[in-house]
Amino acid sequence: MKIAEIRGLTPDQLAETLINLKKEQFNLRFQAATGQVEKTHRVNEIRKDIARIKTVLRAKAAA
């Protein structure tokens, strides 16, 4: 996700997206542990998307 897309979402949508990304991250961790992960770059993408969403949520809460 791009930061511009994330900033356009409401806090409720951001929270929902965050939950979905954390679920996907959990599943990828299990796949990596068993050696079944196909897209290894996706792990880093999800981690960075989670950080972006948390940053925007914190900025919106402060405003």
Automatic annotation (TrEMBL):
Domain of life: Bacteria
GO molecular function: structural constituent of ribosome
Pfam families linked: Ribosomal_L29
GO cellular component terms given for this protein: cytosolic large ribosomal subunit
Gene Ontology biological-process annotations: translation
The keyword Lyase appears for this protein: no
Tagged with keyword Transcription: no
Keywords annotated in UniProt: Ribonucleoprotein, Ribosomal protein
Family: Belongs to the universal ribosomal protein uL29 family.
Protein name, UniProt field: Large ribosomal subunit protein uL29
